[in-house]
Amino acid sequence: MGPVHQLTALLGLLGACACVMDRVGEPVHAWGPPAVVLSVMASMACGASGAVLAAGAGVVAAVALWTALAGPSDGRGPAVVDLVTMAVLTACASRAGRGRALDHHRPGMYMSGAQKPYGFRLFVLLVVCWVLARAGVRLAALVRSSGPPSTDGVGARRVAALHEGGSAAMIIAMAAMLA
Q: pTM above the 0.90 mark?
């Protein structure tokens, strides 16, 4: 595994850990989705096969649906966008490894002896779509709110920054691993 691939895998795992740490003190329904994503991200970084990643994509999609319908109400919109994006990225990674043996030097993303199935354009497309969807969720929440934004304490802002940074790290690292 090259140093760039190691760095992107590490960045994705650190982002997943940050998202789990953001929710650890809360009930299981709040930290369950980030824990599922952490396990899928770990399997992807370790070079899981296409079938394992396809199952992981299905589980992440189910968690996204659960979060949209019954998940914790605080931050539901951004969480659903993140989970759907993770499901799409995991499905793309599983498709890249389907039908051929995976190259053990590049974790779970590239087919052995073949060209990279996805490129920089896919990376840019996925990251731009994710950023636009997250911005749309925030804008919709702002339009719905009737008053000025709440002034939470410094601790709440730090926790929110940890979650946002973790989400960004995971999505960008996964997209980079596909590119």
A: no
